[in-house]
Design a protein that fits this description.
The chain is mainly α. It is built from 6 helices and no strands. 81% of the residues lie in helices and 0% in strands. The two termini are 35 Å apart.
Length: 206
């Protein structure tokens, strides 16, 4: 994605192909959220009246850069993970050994296709934390930008959670599945808590 224009990436999303799809778009939403939080913090740095929170603003920039970079990478990783699932489904099943190999490949691909969006959720929660911090400490004149950062991060988390759910349904390892489902629920709950608090801050600052 990094070597594409926005127009080129959108054309690939719009194309009648499985990837890039919702998982990649969720990761991109998270990256955009982190970028907006960095902007809101940057607009306050070095400005009169924001001296007491200069350290927090610098932290938003530093952490935001890392989170944004990882989410950008997850855009392509999600596409590759789902392409591996499709590849495994297309493996031959003409004999018992071939069928067994296909099942093993599908299970491995489904696990990866769960782990990638789960990380998108994790990084999305981090983006939400950054958006909340930006709303509280960043440039008051950019409060609506912080609000958009909150909404984008929430979309990243919720969108990725759906990809986790659909891929977990195919995994036979009950221990892996139950642990992953529990983690997904924890992340959704955390995102909901942060999102509500952040939007309350936004409403107060408007």
């Amino acid at each position: 994605m990094k070597d594409e224009t926005v127009e080129e990436f959108l054309a690939r999303v719009a194309a009648p192909t499985p990837t890039p799809g919702g998982g990649s778009v969720s990761a991109l939403a998270g990256a955009l959220s982190a970028a907006l939080s960095r902007m809101v913090a940057g607009l306050a740095r070095g400005k009169k009246g924001y001296e007491p929170v200069e350290r927090e603003l610098a932290e938003i920039e530093a952490r935001g850069r890392v989170v944004q970079s990882r989410l950008e990478a997850l855009v392509d990783e999600d596409a590759r993970a789902y392409e591996a699932v499709i590849g495994a489904m297309r493996l031959p099943k003409s004999s018992a050994p071939a069928r067994a190999a296909r099942v093993a490949a599908m299970q491995a691909a489904d696990r990866k296709a769960t782990e990638v969006p789960r990380e998108t959720m994790e990084r999305g929660v981090e983006a939400l934390e950054l958006a909340e911090a930006a709303a509280k400490k960043g440039n008051r004149g950019a409060t609506t930008d912080a609000a958009v950062a909150v909404l984008l991060a929430e979309s990243a988390v919720r969108g990725a959670s759906l990809n986790c759910a659909v891929n977990l349904a195919s995994i036979r390892d009950e221990s892996f599945r139950s642990q992953a489902e529990e983690k997904v629920e924890q992340l959704l709950k955390r995102a909901d808590e942060i999102g509500h608090e952040a939007m309350a801050v936004v409403t107060e600052r408007l």
